[in-house]
Amino acid sequence: MAPNNKNKNQAEGEEIIRVPLPDRREGQLFGVIEQALGAGWMDVRCEDGKVRRCRIPGKLKKKMWMHVGDVVIVQPWSVQSDERGDIVYRYTKTQVDWLLRKGKIKQDFLSGGELLL
Question: Where in this chain does the record put each S1-like domain (predicted)?
Fold first, then answer.
């Protein structure tokens, strides 16, 4: 029987996980939902220390529920970029654990402190 060559490029014991990260070229940031405002709007504390009023686009609104404390990716608007933005992705608990292990976010950021990379 031939060996399984499906994961040729994977080192022995290395984990495979596909977690989207913020696209820095587009200005995306990590954020934590602080308050649900209703009608698809949330107050999100972003990694740059600003609290933005973010909306949940329709394609995400129907697919996943967002709660206070969820880690998200925020895309600031081109106008009012310090005040408004869109939530483009919500991380699951498993993905947040992976981000913490890999050092992409810190526990302080989740509990209200600053993000230090």
Answer: 17-92
What the block records as the tokens of 72 is 């998200």
| 21 vs 108: CA distance, rounded Å | 19
CA gap 64, 31 in Å, rounded: 17
Query: CA–CA distance from 92 to each of 2, 36, 50, 73 (Å)?
Result: 37, 18, 23, 12
What domains appear along the chain, each with residue ranges and CATH number? 24-110 (2.40.50.140)
pTM of the model: 0.80
